[in-house]
């Protein structure tokens, strides 16, 4: 019994200290269906030295640029993304597409998305998903089946509006 508990604790620590959320070449929805919310437009971060600039790209898409300030306070763009929200039951997800030029296959990062008390809370989906999905319908079905399990998500990160 002690071995089982020890393995469970080790597994939990592994999830907690993992940096990157689940990555997929398939988003949850093939096409966005949730309109852009103007409350989400702006600069969001955990500090004033690095943050995400969120703007409206279209009626359903957000343009998201990760910015870091250099030692002189000048903005340097580190990464560019495009994102949209999807809903599975009562859970909202952010499909975050990496627009890096070297990312030819179109990698998506998937986060559980919450907007509470004027802050954005992103919780990465565990990177330990081993299944392969051929389309969004299969991925959505898998998420619906597993999203109520605590091990399906990483630790949440809360972003506040800055600047």
What are the key terms here?
disordered N terminus; 2 helices; 163 residues; 16% helix; alpha+beta
Describe this structure in words.
This protein has 163 residues and is an alpha+beta fold. The protein has one domain. Helix content is 16%, strand content 42%. The chain is built from two helices and nine strands; from the N terminus they run H-E-E-E-E-E-E-E-E-H-E. It has helices at residues 2-16, 136-146; strands at 23-24, 42-45, 50-56, 62-69, 75-88, 91-98, 108-116, 119-125, 153-162. The chain has an eight-stranded antiparallel barrel with strand order 2-3-4-5-6-7-8-9. A hairpin with a 4-residue loop joins strand 2 (42-45) and strand 3 (50-56). The longest helix has 15 residues, at 2-16. The protein is globular, with a radius of gyration of 17 Å.
Summarize the structure.
The protein is α+β, with helices and mostly antiparallel strands and 163 residues long. Helices cover 16% and strands 42% of the residues. It is built from two helices and nine strands.
Structural class by SSE content? alpha+beta
The first-to-last residue Cα distance is 52 Å
Structural Rg:
17 Å
Number of helices: 2
Mean pLDDT: 87
Order of helices and strands: HEEEEEEEEHE
Show the helix and strand layout:
Elements (H helix, E strand, L loop, with lengths): L1 H15 L6 E2 L17 E4 L4 E7 L5 E8 L5 E14 L2 E8 L9 E9 L2 E7 L10 H11 L6 E10 L1
Antiparallel strand pairs: 1-7, 2-3, 2-9, 3-4, 4-5, 5-6, 6-7, 7-8, 8-9
